[in-house]
Amino acid sequence: MDKDINMEKLVSIILPTWKNAGEYINRSIDSVIAQSNSNWELLIIDDGLTDNTEEIVKEYIKKDRRIIFLKNEKNLGIQKTLNKGIKESKGEYIARIDDDDEWVDTDKLKKQVEFLNDNSGHVLVGTGVIVVNENGKELFRYLLPESDMEIRNKILTKSCFIHSSIMFRKNVVVDLGGYDESKETRHVEDYDLWLKLGTVGKLVNLPTYAVKFTLRGGSISSTNKLGQFKKNIILIKKYKNKYPNYFGALIRAYVRIVVYGFILKLPIKFTLNKLTKFYKENW
């Protein structure tokens, strides 16, 4: 297929932001601007900013009309904010980036657009990730299951995609109702969407470290993390007839909760990066 034709597909990039994003958001925006595929629009959505992020974004808008700033009248939460981004978007494909992450592969969008254009049966494409601390220092990196078959065999066990790395077909997600906005999927809305997408099309990860994911803070919130693990069990049961390895995934999910609860009670301090590295490598 002609690469120039591929590049004509507009990509809408959704960047939700709230509270204090000003310290990091320049990285995210700059990494989008640096992409070799220039046919994109960047929708930055303010869901309750409390610092100077809006002023930073408006300076970018003066120089680049592809950047659009949207402001929620009140805090809507991540699920409704993402769906607002989808509704306002004009692209055939949608990508995601968070306000403290950045794309380090300047051909990321180009590769993903070309893949989706050349593989009509695929609905979602992600990449590998480099995990860094707040100062940008690399902590570790990992690739995710690549082929549709590999992903299907593991996706009930854990999410196989990094949110800031993905690109999906807008029309398919709209037909599926977008991100679920219920309390049951809060903080796992991305995982739920990947599972939904896999029921109607193929999934893939490109074997490239295209994204830097920033670990912020000194420790993991036990309330949020344990809550995510429990909601993962709900998703496993919800999609048990759609993917293989249901019982193994369920057992693993319960073990994960027990192990994590035990770690939190240990008389030693586990740092965020150590615990996350262990989780990514083993669970």
What does this structure look like?
There is one protein chain. The protein has 283 residues and is of the alpha/beta class. The protein folds into two domains: 3-214, Spore Coat Polysaccharide Biosynthesis Protein SpsA, Chain A (Alpha-Beta Complex); 222-282, no CATH class. The chain has helices at 3-7, 25-33, 53-63, 78-88, 108-118, 148-154, 170-175, 189-197, 222-238, 246-265, 272-282, and strands at 11-19, 40-49, 67-71, 93-96, 102-103, 122-132, 138-142, 167-169, 202-214. Strands 1, 2, 3, 4, 5, 6, 7, 8 and 9 form a nine-stranded mixed beta sheet that branches. Mean pLDDT is 90; it is low at 1-6 and 218-223. Residues 12-173 form the Glycosyltransferase 2-like domain.
Helix-strand blueprint:
Layout: H1 3-7, E1 11-19, H2 25-33, E2 40-49, H3 53-63, E3 67-71, H4 78-88, E4 93-96, E5 102-103, H5 108-118, E6 122-132, E7 138-142, H6 148-154, E8 167-169, H7 170-175, H8 189-197, E9 202-214, H9 222-238, H10 246-265, H11 272-282
Parallel strand pairs: 1-2, 1-4, 2-3, 6-9
Antiparallel strand pairs: 4-8, 5-9, 6-7, 6-8
Helix pairs in contact: 9-10
Domain Glycosyltransferase 2-like: 12-173
Keywords: Glycosyltransferase, Transferase
Pfam families: Glycos_transf_2
